Amino acid sequence: MKNPLSVLIVDDDPITRQLLRAILRESDYDVIGEASNGDGALAQCLALHPDIVLLDISMPGMNGLAILQELRQKHPDCVVVMLSATATAQRVGDALRLGARGFIVKPFTAGKVVNELGKSLSF
After folding, report:
1. How far apart are the first and last CA of the chain?
2. Is residue 1 part of a domain?
3. Does 47 map to a domain?
4. Tens of pLDDT along 39-71?
């Protein structure tokens, strides 16, 4: 039996992190960490080596696109899926050009999260 894929959740909103944690655990992903800002995200990613990072774009301090660039350099094998309530074509395009494998628009449903992760992993 294959081990569940490990996930790091990065979002400044604790309710969003809690909801994502519940969705992922119900779908047999292993949530190995959470962060509420860019510094925490980078530190946890380098320490924990998750298979997947769910990364919010809009956060205080370092935004998700800057974090994405750092992750691509320091942890290139990690699959990064972006989260945002403002999914403009420009923002989605920027995220994909910088190396994100997927994009989840807030508000989201459990089905949307699981579906986008599946698509991102088969990329």
Report:
1. 22
2. no
3. yes
4. 999 999 989 999 999 999 999 888 999 999 999
